Amino acid sequence: MATKEFWDKALLSVQEAFSKGKLNTLDEFYSPDVVFNNPAFPPFNGLNTFKQVVLSTRNSYSDIWYEDEEMIINGDNLAARFTIHAKTAGPLDWLPVYNIPVGKEVYWKAVVFCHVKNDKIVEVIEVSNYLGLIQQLASFSSK
Question: For the whole prediction, is pTM greater than 0.85?
Fold first, then answer.
């Protein structure tokens, strides 16, 4: 059964991957064939694909940091709520907003649900307030 220490370190590994580019720390906590689900996008499989998502995000945002708000642990299951803060650094292919100035601060709220099997995270469900993010970005590009 996953402990609170495991979940704390697993969440920190994700935060450090996005904020500092430390991708190798993810290997300790995620299964190579982890499944990611987000209602806004098609699901994808695999830790290597997740690392590519992290790199793409780091190309679009800088100064990424997390404001942890709540974590609920039930054995091998986790629910976590947080706010992501960042500065714009370039366009994101999946967002329908263009001509975004660099260096603008944005934030969006998110929740994740994770499941562990054999001491590795095998499933992640993420729900983020992408509409709020798009509205912030659109307000920058229309000025």
Answer: yes
